[in-house]
Structure of Probable membrane transporter protein:
Amino acid sequence: MISTIILGGLGLLLLYFVFYLVRDLIAHRDSLKLAENKVKLVIAFFIGIFTDFLDTLGVGSFAPTAMLLDMTKNMEHDRQLPGTLNVAHTIPVMLEAFIFIAVVKVEPMTLFSLIVAAIVGSWVGSRTVSKMPEKKIQFYMGIALIVTAVLMGLRQQGMLDALGAGNEALGLEGGKLVIGIVGNFIFGALMTIGVGLYAPCMAMVYMLGMSPLVAFPIMMASCAGLMPVASAEFIKSDNYSRINTIGIIFGGIIGVIIAAYFVTNLNMDILVWIIIAVVIWSGIIYIRKGLKKDEPETV
C-alpha cells in the first residue's frame, strides 16, 4: 500500500514536470531547428547514456554532465547549465526510482519516511542551510565521507565486527529509523548547497546495517521527489538548453536501463566495494571544493 502511494506520488510529479516540458518544447518548436542541430543532439544523446549510467551506479550525473558539455562545447550559454542539468536528468532519475522501487525489496515505511525526510530537508535547506558557509560544509562532509568509506572497507574485511556482520536488513526500526530520518533530512538540506545526496545516503544506509542494494531505491526516490518541481521552475523561467535536454533525456533512459540491470545482478560484495569507491571519490571532490578559493568577481 505504502509503495503504491510512493509510486503514485512520483507519477504525479512526473506528469507535472512533463506537462511543463512538453508545453515549452511545443511553444519553441520553430526555434529548436533540429535539422541544424543534429550533431549537438547526437553528442547530448551519448552524454546522457554515459552520465545516467554513472548516476544509476550512484556516482551522480551532474558533475560528469557539466564536464562533458564543457569539453564538447555543446552549451551555448553557461548560465543555462544548472537548469539543463536538472531538467535533462529529471526523467532518467524518475525511471531509476521506478525501477529500483519495483525490483529491490525495501520495507515500505522506511522507504516512505526517508523520502519524505529528504524532501522536507531540501525545503528547509533552501531557506536556512543555503545561507551557511558552503565551503566549510563541503570540506567537512568530504572528510566524513572518506572516514566512513574507510570504516566500510574495514568492516567488509571483518575487522570491525562491532559494527555488525552481514548487511541484510531491508528496513529500519526504532532508534535506527530515527537516525535514518534525521540523516536523510540533513542530506536533503545539504543538496541546496551542492552536496549530493547519493554518497552520504549510501554510506548511512550501509552503516545502519541495511543491505547495500537498498540504498538505491531510497536515494533515487529521494532525488526523484525533489527534481520535478525545481526543473519546472527552470522551464518556466526559460533558463535551460532545449537541444541538450532532448538528447540527454533519450540517451539517459537507455543508460539507466543498462545500469539497472548491471547493478541488480551484481554480487553484493562487489557492490559494496563499488559503493566504497563512490563514497571515497565523492569525499575527495567535496574536500577539493571546500579548499578551492572563490575566484574574485570581475566588474
